[in-house]
Design brief:
Elements lengths: L6 E5 L3 H12 L8 E6 L5 H14 L7 E6 L5 H14 L4 E6 L2 E3 L3 H11 L6 E5 L13 E4 L7 E4 H4 L9 H5 L2 H7 L6 H9 L6 H11 L3 E5 L4 E3 L38 H8 L4 H13 L1
Parallel strand pairs: 1-2, 1-4, 2-3, 6-9
Antiparallel strand pairs: 4-8, 5-10, 6-8, 7-9
Helix pairs in contact: 8-9
């Protein structure tokens, strides 16, 4: 592999988590050989302007990557539109992207894993995306990955041909919402899936990720996940855009970063024992438990 996938980073107003994200990314083995694109969203209100300006001042000081290109939005787009538009823009000039948000700490071998996985599964149409994040998984597999049918938005990668096929309008939603069997199938990767899609289509939330996951479900596609997580989310704070949880049900163990060459499974299928562990944080009982913990703390 002579060239490496560009990194696309989305940021808004949280300087502290962003600095952690950048510092860990700079420590990656392949950082100096990777192009970095940064999309900075504009302030939604005057109260956010100072924080956004601090972020923008900081991103102009970043170095140690092959190239750095910064896009500063003139108006607030929100996370969903920022990601959809930004990833689409970069995929017009590159065949792949590795995507991060400003609250994700990576292991030193994160870029190695993502690039190698993109290369290994490039010609495998059943594979939709690569995920650097994983819950702690107990498995005796000899491979460095497993498969799910639920993509992760915590440090991910995708190919142009997969991304460009996504129907962001979810044009068949009316058919889906009245089909209990389809909803049940969608929820096999987490009890929250169909409800989240319903809220998205009702305008109650604005999530790019649930539409992304629905596309994957609709066409029976798979995500590749690192068996040892290469990503840790440090963004569960009160000023987060998409969550205000103080206690994180997605707490994981970050890879020690030593390994730089990975063994990928050619057998694309779900392992029931792994899927049981993977879906646990999305179970109804655990979601209720953490909601109560965060409510009363």
């Amino acid at each position: 592999m002579n060239t490496f996938s560009p990194i696309v980073l989305f940021t808004y107003r949280r300087l502290g988590p962003l600095q952690k994200t950048i510092q860990s990314l700079k420590e990656n083995y392949l950082a100096s050989q990777s192009d970095l694109y940064i999309f900075s969203d504009a302030a939604k209100s005057d109260s956010d302007s100072e924080a956004v300006n601090a972020v923008r001042e900081y991103i102009h000081s970043i170095d140690d990557f092959k190239t750095i290109t910064i896009f500063e939005a003139a108006r607030n787009k929100g996370l969903a539109s920022s990601i959809i538009d930004g990833v689409t823009q970069i995929l017009k000039i590159h065949d792949t992207v590795i995507v991060l948000e400003d609250d994700l700490v990576s292991s030193r071998n994160f870029l190695n894993f993502m690039n190698e996985a993109l290369d290994f599964y490039r010609e495998e149409p059943k594979v939709f995306s690569i995920a650097g994040f994983s819950m702690p998984i107990k498995s005796n597999t000899k491979f460095d990955n497993y498969f799910t049918q639920r993509s992760s938005s915590h440090g991910w990668a995708i190919w142009k041909d997969r991304w460009m096929r996504i129907d962001w309008a979810v044009s068949d939603y009316n058919e889906f919402k009245s089909n209990r069997k389809l909803k049940h199938s969608f929820n096999k990767m987490g009890s929250d899936m169909s409800g989240m899609l319903d809220r998205q289509m009702q305008g109650k939330i604005n999530s790019w990720a649930i539409r992304w996951c629905y596309h994957q479900f609709k066409y029976g596609l798979f995500s590749v996940h690192a068996i040892n997580s290469k990503i840790e989310n440090v963004g569960f704070t009160i000023d987060a855009s998409n969550t205000t949880e103080k206690y994180n049900r997605f707490k994981t163990i970050l890879d020690n970063g030593v390994k730089t060459s990975f063994l990928f499974s050619p057998d694309i299928r779900l392992d029931p024992k792994i899927i049981k562990q993977f879906t646990k944080p999305f179970s109804i009982l655990l979601r209720i438990k953490y909601k109560a913990i965060n409510l009363f703390q």
